[in-house]
UniProtKB/TrEMBL annotation:
Lineage: Bacteria, Bacillati, Actinomycetota, Actinomycetes, Kitasatosporales
Pfam families for this protein: COesterase
PANTHER family xref list: CARBOXYLESTERASE
Name of the top EC class for this enzyme: hydrolase
Entry similarity comment: Belongs to the type-B carboxylesterase/lipase family.
Protein name: Carboxylic ester hydrolase
Coiled-coil annotated spans: none
Length: 507
């Protein structure tokens, strides 16, 4: 096969697919890895894709799963009525005729409520050009993926991810990849999914390395998830069961979940921190597929043979505050209230003020929320994996976005366009500008090199994390490997356990 005279064709387990050459990369889009989860399969686990005869054109992304309309940002693309083939996979290969290239499988984020693989920021061509087979895929989000309903399998989103990884194991060699050298990587909710998969016994052998970028600390107990699922079903006037909800149109189920999201403040006394951060969905510690939280599982040695890169951005939540127009407008009373419910305890709240005596209320709020939501869960995951006998590499992304006059800092999500090398598109241009600076390009280059080196060899380019020195790669205009830089926060949260969130028992 030459790249100039014919489109690339690959035989998968379900049938032959025809892709397209694009700038030296063979691109295959919208390949089903499971049947559409609608009709009799609505709110069921994924079922393997039906085979087809002849050659299937793989030149367009599959439709997005139902997307929350209440989150306020996302991929820019909503689900299309009647387009229900949500569970599809995309492959970017530098050479389908090769053998044994490292494989990287991306899991998107989006508060567990939005996300699809078709966003321009997730185009895998730049990473594929580094002798890597890059895979992206769609999985269910929101109530479709994480809603807890009786008689429906919990964590359907994780089941989708397992099905996609099983598809990779069975088919990726035909695209030039090595099924025994697979790295999963994801950011935000995608990093939470990566952590959950590491804690899932059923995932053993499906991947061999993992990268978790900004791991959320929000995992839900069965009672909390079921209580929120009951509220979603109540918006439809139905029982919280699969039998009652499966006939409901997916968009109607999505709208009911959005109504619950918009009213979560009213449930603060019962749903606690989940209500405070307005997150109706998260991976559920169900005792079966996900027997315990990632921090518990990894500390006990689960996935000890999987090498892990994990880290966070320096200013995780600063961007949320800036984009909402709240920079400089948080009151002392608001900051004090957040410290009361978010810091580990009263001593921790005092330690924040003592450790940051000059912080204004906005900066204090952003710091504490960043620590609870992303920074400390990521650090603790490195600690847990190391304690369980695994190898972990820790990083912090500290290079600040130039957007909004620098108001965003090194914000949540900034690492995604840098790691993918996709500086255009809505997110890339918002965070990096229409013409990224040489500094931005250099930081991007260093992160891409580290991620692909890790996928290929297990070594990202800096020493492993160990409790005695806590060496951390800090990505910046001048990157360096130093002891973990957020020592004040580390000490405040040292004895905290990121347990599954429970209902508080309030009304």
């Amino acid at each position: 096969m030459t790249r100039s005279d014919r489109a690339p064709e690959i035989r998968t387990a379900s049938g032959v697919v025809r892709g397209r050459w694009r700038d030296g990369v063979a691109v295959f889009l919208g390949i089903p890895y499971a049947r559409p989860p609608v009709g009799d399969l609505h709110l069921a686990g994924p079922v393997p894709a039906s085979p087809w005869d002849g050659v299937r054109d793989a030149d367009a992304f599959g439709p997005a799963p139902p997307q929350s309309l209440a989150v306020g940002y996302g991929t820019g693309r909503q689900s299309v009525a009647g387009a229900d083939d949500w569970l599809t996979v995309n492959v970017f290969s530098p050479d389908p005729g090769a053998a044994g290239l490292a494989v990287m499988v991306w899991i998107y984020g989006g508060m567990y409520m939005i996300g699809s693989a078709d966003g321009p920021g997730y185009d895998g061509a730049a990473l594929a050009r580094r002798d890597t087979v890059l895979v992206t895929f769609n999985h269910r989000v929101g109530a479709e993926g994480y809603g807890q309903f009786a008689d429906a399998p919990p964590n359907r989103a994780l089941l989708d991810q397992l099905a996609a990884l099983e598809w990779v194991r069975e088919n990726i060699a035909a695209f030039g990849g090595d099924p025994d050298r697979v790295t999963v990587f994801g950011e935000s909710a995608g990093a939470g999914a990566v952590a959950a998969l590491m804690a899932t016994p059923r995932a053993a052998g499906l991947f061999h390395r993992a990268v978790a970028q900004s791991v959320p600390g929000t995992f839900y107990s069965l009672p909390l998830a079921a209580d929120i699922g009951t509220a979603v079903a109540a918006e439809l006037g139905l029982a919280p069961t699969r039998a009652a909800l499966a006939p409901v149109a997916p968009d109607a189920l999505r709208d009911a979940a959005d109504t619950v999201l918009n009213s979560m403040a009213d449930h603060g006394k019962r749903w606690g921190r989940a209500a405070r951060v307005r997150m109706p969905f998260a991976p559920v510690v169900d005792g079966d597929l996900l027997p315990r939280t990632p921090w518990e599982a990894l500390r006990a040695g689960q996935s000890a043979g999987v090498e892990l890169v994990v880290g966070h951005t320096r200013d995780e939540c600063r961007g949320f505050t800036a984009l909402s127009g709240r920079r400089g407008k948080v009151t002392e009373e608001e900051a004090a209230a957040l410290l009361e419910w978010c810091a580990p305890d009263a001593a921790g709240a005092r330690a924040y003020r003592a450790g940051h005596p000059d912080a204004n209320p906005t900066d204090l709020q952003d710091l504490v929320l960043s620590d609870w939501l992303f920074r400390m869960p990521s650090l603790h995951l490195a600690d847990a994996h190391t304690a369980g006998g695994g190898t972990a590499y820790l990083y912090e992304m500290a290079w600040p976005s130039p957007a909004m006059g620098g108001a965003l800092g090194a914000c949540h999500g900034l690492d995604v366009p840098l790691v993918f090398g996709n500086h255009g598109g809505e997110i890339g241009e918002m965070l990096l500008g229409k013409d990224p600076s040489p500094e931005a390009t250099a930081v991007s280059e260093s992160m891409m090199a580290a991620w692909t080196a890790f996928a290929g060899t297990g070594a990202p380019g800096w020493p492993p994390y160990r409790p005695e020195d806590r060496l951390t790669r800090v990505f910046n205009a001048e990157s360096a490997t130093v002891p973990y830089p957020e020592e004040t926060s580390r000490r405040i949260w040292a004895d905290w356990s990121f347990a599954a969130l429970e209902p508080t028992g309030g009304g």
